[in-house]
Amino acid sequence: MRLSREIFITETIKLLEEQGYHGTSTRSILNACGAQRGSLYHFFPDGKEELVVEAIQVQANVTANVMQAMFQECDTAEEAVFELMNAMAERGEANNFCVGAPVAAIAQESATTNHQLRIACRDAYRQLTDVIKEKLIADGIPQSKARSIAISVTATIEGAILLSRTEQTGAPLRDAAVSMYKLIEASK
User: Fold this and answer.
1) Which domains are delineated in the chain?
2) Is the pTM above the cut of 0.90?
């Protein structure tokens, strides 16, 4: 395997999903990539923190693209959010809730102690919230209401993921999906 920035980022995202920021050591990243220490610093001179910031950005872009593609298949915003949350429940159940929400894990661990990671998490959440907001606006919800609804949806998704992980069932995500459907429908 030829080492590249992409390999480091991909393996780091997997580790962050499973272990969080503090649980993911530089050594575990190197082992996952089959790399020597110098390779990490060749691609990421500032080390683990720089790598994790880029991993957050990449993961946010991937998630935003998946959401946009899914949302294009849905006629209404409430249907789009409902489908998204149910897909998250299915994904969680398929992998025993061992992965998911790497940004949440990093934000909870590092928001008060690491400015760069906090900014990366903030930007990731803003990007994902904007995808939801744009679908709401496209479905006729005024921009003034769409932003606050999108923030509520994002916060509900993150909380429901946490509950689903701790309960080891997609039920909290599915229940929250119904609530968000009703909230969006009532906002029109």
Assistant:
1) 47-186 (1.10.357.10)
2) yes
At 1 the pLDDT is 58
pLDDT of residue 126: 98
Residue type, 183: L
**3-state SS track over the chain:** CCCCHHHHHHHHHHHHHHHHHHHCCHHHHHHHHCCCHHHHHHHCCCCHHHHHHHHHHHHHHHHHHHHHHHHHCCCCHHHHHHHHHHHHHHHHHHCCCCCCCHHHHHHHHHCCCCHHHHHHHHHHHHHHHHHHHHHHHHCCCCHHHHHHHHHHHHHHHHHHHHHHHHHCCCHHHHHHHHHHHHHHHHCC
For residue 24, pLDDT beyond 70 = yes
